[in-house]
Design brief:
By secondary structure, the chain is mainly α. Helix content is 54%, strand content 3%. The protein has helices at residues 2-30, 56-74, 78-81, 122-135, 143-146, 157-174, 205-217, 238-260, 279-286, 295-315, 317-322, 330-349, 364-384, 391-411, 435-462, and strands at residues 82-85, 188-191, 262-264, 274-276. The strands form two sheets. It has a two-stranded antiparallel ribbon. Helix 2 (56-74) packs antiparallel against helix 12 and helix 13 packs antiparallel against helix 14 (391-411). Bound molecules: flavin-adenine dinucleotide (FAD). The site of flavin-adenine dinucleotide has 22 residues, from helix 7, helix 8 and helix 14.
Length: 463
């Protein structure tokens, strides 16, 4: 009997060792770092970003060492932290099918008291202005001077109307998404720092319908593809690949954020929920084996989207260098300006920028038609954001799509396309960015930057 128990014990140990070992081995397949060859998650995440002459590794070091810390500090400033958005627009495509019931979906709106002076409604501003004019010395700027940096209040009512009409006309030509701004009404300022993009529990049919609609109906697809399975982009022209990659990059960024700031349920009835990084969730979404080999490519698409927005910021540098970043607090405004100039210096020095001049080339008529199609698809995606059934997801979805639309507007405006081209205020093409476009562009880029930083966090956790 003792002999029998001994044999059983040895067998159990051996079994545990073999099975445990193979489990670990298959785990190790996932837990590869960049240097490890073979299938996995991070091992495929290296080399050139598709359709660009830029390596993932160089973007990692540019972002994590230089851009991410600068963005983090800049985006906490008043000019960038308040975003004006309409979360009450009706979904134009289908009846709103789901409201996320979780408390994590709710968005906290700002009251007028929460806002810095430059962002207050006109009436509140006027009463405060009287106070400022009375209390400050004659050296202080007049009301007209104070509002000079504020795009919508610097000019007479008539000019403002003319300007609005002109802008509307111009936007109809060049914007890639529908903007929620002062003209639409029903907009609220949201403090982005109080409403971080993170896990909300929004899942199931409603988000799938959104993603499905984006990829199926509004993304260009290769003829043999349907649904999300856009694995092979061969046979698609560069413009269509760019479009798909940008959307997929945004999707990857959202998935990374919800895995990086995940809400773990309480482990006991009396325990509390905890926010933290969920490696399992990250791997479920990006691991080579768990995604039929598609996850690493989705991560690469994130780097692609990052490169496109990086180039847009570099191209708009002369414009952004001239911007006033007005909030009504001189000290704050100067600090923002300094932060922006510092960021632009880093962005401009990056040598391997995305080259937008490769897009919409060839036959002029066909190129123009393709550009219009590209813009229409993109505008449609911005309207689909009104169908998102979770307010916090809608907020960040709208902001990021608007930021991406602003990046595209910049890329296809200005004194031409290609590495040396730029956009300036008051240029021939009367190029202009509204406050909301600048805020969304920088915040959208900040999201991508924070995603690339989060990949590094996950990489370190498993290596
Ligand atoms: C605009 C928007 C914003 C959202 N914001 C948040 C948020 O802030 N917090 C939150 O918790 N949830 C958010 N969600 C929900 C989240 O994106 C997922 O839909 C949800 O977590 C369910 O995930 P899933 O595993 O079913 O796959 P999903 O992410 O819904 O993806 C559906 C399918 O798309 C394919 N796919 C996945 N990733 C990619 C990619 N990068 N490129 C191409 N194809 C891909 C896969 O085949 C996958 O099965 C948002 C959804 C939308 C539409």
């Amino acid at each position: 009997m003792a002999q029998y128990i001994k044999i059983c014990f040895i067998l159990v140990i051996a079994y545990t060792y073999i099975v445990g070992g193979s489990k670990n081995k298959s785990k190790n397949k996932l837990l590869v770092n960049r240097e490890t060859p073979g299938p996995g998650c991070f091992c495929k995440l290296n080399g050139e970003v598709d359709d660009c002459q830029c390596k993932v590794e160089s973007l990692d070091s540019l972002n994590n060492d230089q851009i991410y810390p600068r963005m983090k500090s800049l985006l906490s400033r008043n000019f960038f932290r308040y975003f004006k958005v309409n979360l009450h627009k009706e979904c134009p495509f289908w009846a709103d099918d789901s409201r996320c019931a979780m408390k994590n979906c709710a968005v906290e709106m700002c009251t007028q008291d929460d806002l810095p002076f430059g962002l207050k409604e006109e009436e509140d501003k006027e009463s405060e202005n009287k106070y400022i004019e009375k209390a400050q010395s004659e050296d202080c700027p007049t009301k007209a001077d104070v509002t000079l940096g504020d795009i919508d209040t610097t000019i007479s009512k008539e000019s403002q109307q003319a300007f609005k009409d002109w802008t509307k006309y111009d936007d109809a030509q060049e914007t890639f998404c529908e903007l929620d701004d002062d003209t639409t009404g029903n907009c609220d300022y949201v403090d982005l720092l109080l409403n971080p993009e993170r896990y909300t529990g929004y899942k199931g049919e409603s988000p799938h319908r959104i993603w499905n609609s984006i990829y199926n109906e509004n993304c260009f697809k290769a003829p043999d593809q349907s649904g999300y399975n856009s694995q092979s982009l061969t046979g698609m022209c560069l413009e269509k690949r760019v479009f798909y990659r940008m959307i997929s990059g945004l999707h990857a960024s959202i998935s990374i954020h919800l895995s990086h700031e995940y809400l773990f349920p309480a482990s006991t009835c009396y325990g509390t929920e905890k926010w933290g990084q969920n490696m399992e969730e990250f791997l479920r979404r990006f691991d080579h084996e768990q995604t039929d080999g598609r996850g690493p490519q989705w991560l690469k698409n994130l780097y692609f989207t990052y490169l496109v927005e990086l180039r847009a910021i570099a191209k708009a540098a002369p414009y952004l260098e001239e911007e006033g970043y007005f909030t009504g607090d001189d000290e704050e405004d100067n600090a923002v300006k300094e932060g922006v100039l510092d960021l632009l210096n880093v962005v401009k020095q990056f040598p391997n920028q995305f080259d937008e001049s490769k897009l919409f080339k060839g036959n002029k008529k066909e190129a123009q038609a393709l550009k219009e199609e590209f813009r229409d698809h993109f505008r449609n995606i911005s309207r689909i954001m009104d169908c998102v059934g979770c307010d916090k997801c809608k907020l960040w979805g709208k902001l990021q799509v608007q930021g991406m639309g602003t990046a595209l507007k910049i890329l296809f405006s200005g004194d031409g396309m290609g590495p040396q081209s730029t956009v300036k205020a008051g240029s021939k093409q009367k190029f202009q960015l509204r406050r909301t476009e600048i805020v969304s562009l920088l915040n959208a880029f900040g999201r991508l930057s924070s995603s690339i930083h989060a990949i590094e966090v996950f990489r370190r956790m498993i290596s």
